[in-house]
From TrEMBL:
Coiled coil: none annotated. It comes from Saccharothrix espanaensis (strain ATCC 51144 / DSM 44229 / JCM 9112 / NBRC 15066 / NRRL 15764). The keyword DNA-binding applies. This is Integrase family protein. Keywords: DNA recombination, DNA-binding. Residues 149-334 form the Tyr recombinase domain.
């Protein structure tokens, strides 16, 4: 089937003459065309699977529990049928009924996640013009207050105790010691360690490729010692393909989050602050980044953490122009570990000498 050719000038003129005889203007003819029927607003049961397929894996993993709660509560309710008062009730209900775990802080985090998960659904609905922005109830309620974080950097005594216990207890102390050192050096999140692949090890330049929160990726410097242990660990536990995961169990299977859960559960039995303060892997990130910020400034600490500087015009926007480069991060790492790094602008000895001058 071929497309119809454009009408000629003669045909257009004949059409105008016919319209003139009928007393109808071309504008009126166009205006009389029936408008497209409005799209039906989906229910929560219909919309959640759609959005779940559009977001990244990390977002889906974080929000799926809360989306399931919405579907279970209001499966047949359309998105434009949810008043703000119902959302206010929901966030309070989530906070009051949140599961009490060791890191319990009054259910504030659960309520905050429910708010963000709900707003994500409505953001896609507004963008697809399923509902007008004025019908988005998440814009009419207050975001639940965030609880004051209890995480902080560890002092040397506690960090040494954690390292000692990890490397001398359990069924795989070599793996656990490697995990602790990896997170202390890189300040990476757990997801960055679990996603590390064989082709993400740059031995020549001493870099590892981290895939982390928000589907962001970055090259992070590591010490020669850590790089050697990562390569040896991966090789002896069966990593052969470029996309093979580096961190593995004794049986060769890639590591999962369960290893972290078991590690800190065991450390609670050997290091009292781990038990009383509910210390976790993320505390190691706080420890390293605090040290970097104190010794090398906020710009280097931000780059070390993998944070992107804001590009807006607020007072802090100067960070766009003062962001640190990879060489500065490598220099901070060299001082932290006391080992030279191929990308560092100065060796640890040179830096120490300049500090003492």
């Amino acid at each position: 089937m071929t497309d119809r050719a454009e009408p000629s000038a003669e045909e257009l003129e004949k059409a105008r003459q016919v319209l003139a005889l009928l007393g109808v203007s071309p504008e009126a003819l166009v205006a009389s065309q029936p408008a497209a029927p409005p799209r039906e607003v989906p229910t929560f049961a219909e919309w959640v699977p759609v959005v779940s397929g559009l977001v990244g894996e990390g977002t889906r993993k974080l929000y799926s529990t809360y989306w399931n709660r919405l579907v279970a509560l209001w499966p047949e309710r359309r998105l434009d049928e949810l008043p703000a008062s119902d959302l206010t009730w929901l966030f309070g209900h989530i906070r009051q009924t949140a599961v009490r775990r060791r890191n319990w802080r009054g259910g504030h985090s659960a309520a905050e996640h429910m708010f963000s998960a709900t707003r994500c659904l409505y953001k896609f609905a507004v963008n697809d013009e399923l509902i007008p922005v004025g019908r988005d109830p998440t814009r009419k309620v207050k975001k639940p207050k965030r609880a004051i974080p209890t995480r902080r950097g560890l002092n040397n005594t506690v960090l040494e105790a954690v390292t000692e216990a990890a490397s001398t207890t359990g069924d795989d102390p070599a793996l656990d010691a490697l995990l602790i050192r990896f997170h202390v050096e890189t300040a990476a999140r757990r997801g960055g360690a679990l996603a590390l692949e064989l082709d993400g090890l740059d031995r020549e330049q001493g870099l590892v490729l981290l895939h982390e929160k928000g589907e962001q990726s970055r090259w992070q410097p590591v010490s020669p010692t850590l790089m050697t242990h990562l390569v040896d660990h991966a090789h002896h536990r069966g990593a052969r393909e470029p996309t093979s995961k580096v961190l593995r169990y004794h049986n060769g299977n890639p590591l999962t989050y369960r290893r972290y859960d078991g590690l800190w559960e065991r450390l609670r039995e050997h290091v009292e602050p781990v038990r009383t303060q509910n210390i976790s892997t993320h505390w190691l990130r706080h420890t390293t980044l605090k040290w970097v910020e104190r010794n090398f400034g906020e710009a280097v600490a931000r780059a070390y953490a993998g944070h992107r500087p804001s590009g807006d015009a607020r007072p802090g926007a100067i960070a766009v122009y003062t962001k640190a480069d990879l060489e500065e991060v490598a220099t901070a790492l060299a001082v932290l570990t006391g080992e030279p790094h191929p990308l560092a602008v100065s060796t640890p000895t040179e830096l120490s000498d300049s500090d003492n001058a």
